[in-house]
């Protein structure tokens, strides 16, 4: 039985690889992909999703546009990392597949209400605005979610857009707080994981060696996307964030973490968007999330490379 998922995403080169990994994996059935505003504005993220689906030959995938700004406050974007298109490093043709008329929030609600309870996984790769809005509009969907698997947050690795906060949570802390506290099982792939999976030159070369349009696009994206983090961290490559969400679905044994309480700071100017994970159990707050800390990086890239090579 394939794992039924909704991917909520703000492409973003790393988001694109996550979408491609899901499309290349028969264990996964994508019910729909919903566009979030994040790395770049919504008008670009929804188009980028369709470009990636067509790159993979999957114009059948249903793509929905979501909220164009966070639940509170103004949108913060990251063109300085991803480029003005959000997917600089490779040029893909304008999409011809349709964007669905239904709003992403309504698609999330309608899908959770129509699919059997506890069978749909929500994978969030960007700010959680669409999911937070859906949970606010229809709180009854919370108990129908199989699990929420999110790239976001950080603990021992701190933040990447501020010293305290990771980008996805920082952009919409209210939405993240709602999602992580809704009662559905939550799995978080934070910077503590993604900073351990670096796009080193041999790993990027392995994609280009496919000799396919997918391999060429992926290598181009990674060479562009990593430059910012390589300079910032002085590392051998950039952290590859979002594909870890899909890799966790496919091979959870690649990851290790612990159930703990995870709260989101929404009020402080200094630490807005910080994920406060009670890793050492010093409070009696409920353990609402599986917070990951370790990853088999070679196993992750072996999976990613093997699967993306199948996309022709
Ligand atoms: O902080 C990394 C996250 O922010 C990734 O999801 C990246 O795509 C951006 O959305
Ligand atoms: Ca993302």
UniProtKB/TrEMBL annotation:
GO terms for molecular function: purine nucleosidase activity. Residues 5-301 form the Inosine/uridine-preferring nucleoside hydrolase domain. Gene3D superfamilies: Ribonucleoside hydrolase-like. Keywords: Glycosidase, Hydrolase. Its EC number is 3.2.2.1. InterPro entries: Inosine/uridine_hydrolase_dom (IPR001910), IUNH (IPR023186), Ribo_hydro-like (IPR036452). The keyword Hydrolase applies. Signal peptide: none annotated. Pfam families: IU_nuc_hydro. This is Purine nucleosidase. It comes from Neorhizobium huautlense. The lineage of its organism: Bacteria, Pseudomonadati, Pseudomonadota, Alphaproteobacteria, Hyphomicrobiales.
């Amino acid at each position: 039985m394939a794992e039924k998922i909704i991917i909520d995403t703000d492409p973003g080169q790393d988001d694109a690889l996550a979408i491609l990994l899901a499309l290349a994996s028969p264990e996964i059935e994508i019910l729909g992909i919903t566009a979030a505003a994040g790395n770049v504005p919504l008008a670009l993220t929804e188009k980028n999703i369709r470009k990636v689906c067509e790159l993979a030959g999957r114009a059948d995938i249903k793509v929905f546009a979501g909220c164009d700004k966070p639940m509170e406050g103004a949108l913060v974007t990251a063109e300085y990392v991803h480029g003005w298109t959000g997917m600089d490093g490779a040029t893909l043709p304008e999409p011809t597949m349709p964007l669905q008329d239904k709003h992403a929030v309504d698609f999330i609600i309608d899908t959770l209400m129509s699919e059997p309870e506890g069978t749909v996984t929500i994978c969030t790769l960007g700010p959680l605005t669409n999911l937070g809005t859906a949970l606010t509009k229809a709180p009854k969907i919370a108990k129908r979610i199989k699990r929420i698997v999110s790239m976001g947050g950080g603990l021992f690795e701190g933040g990447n857009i501020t010293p305290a906060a990771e980008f996805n949570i920082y952009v919409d802390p209210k939405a993240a707080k709602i999602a992580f506290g809704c009662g559905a099982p939550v799995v978080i792939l934070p910077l503590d994981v993604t900073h351990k999976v670096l796009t080193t030159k041999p790993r990027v070369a392995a994609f280009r060696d496919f000799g396919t349009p997918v391999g060429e696009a992926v290598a181009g994206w990674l060479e562009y996307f990593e430059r910012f983090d390589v300079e910032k961290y002085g590392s051998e490559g950039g952290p590859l964030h979002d594909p870890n969400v899909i890799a966790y679905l496919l091979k959870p044994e690649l990851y290790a973490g612990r159930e703990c309480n995870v709260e989101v700071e929404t009020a402080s100017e200094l630490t807005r968007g910080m994920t406060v994970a009670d890793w050492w159990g010093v409070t009696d707050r409920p353990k609402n999330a599986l917070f990951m800390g370790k990853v088999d990086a070679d196993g992750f890239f072996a999976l990613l490379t093997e699967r993306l090579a199948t996309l022709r």
